[in-house]
Amino acid sequence: MNREVSVIICAAGKGSRAGFGKNKLLLPLPGGAGETVLEHTVRAFVRAEVGQIVVAAAPCDRAKIENLLAPYSPLCIVTEGGETRTRSVKNALAAVTGRIVLVHDGARPYVSEKVIADCIQSVRACGSGVCALPLTDTAVRAKDGFIADVPPRDEMFAVQTPQGFLTAELKAAYEKTGKENYTDDSAVYAKFIRPPRLFIGEKENRKLTFAEDFRAPAPPLPLSGDGGKTADVPPLLFPRAQALGAARVGIGVDTHAFGKAQDYIVLAGVKIPAESGLIAHSDGDVLAHAVTDAALSAAGLRDIGFYFPDTDEKWRGADSMEMLRAALQEVKKTGFVPCNVSVAVQAQKPRLGKFIPAMSENLAKTMNIPLSAVGIAAGTNEGLGFVGEGKGITVTAAVLLQTF
Ligand code: MG
Question: From ligand 1's centre to the CA of 254, what distance in Å?
Answer without folding.
Answer: 5
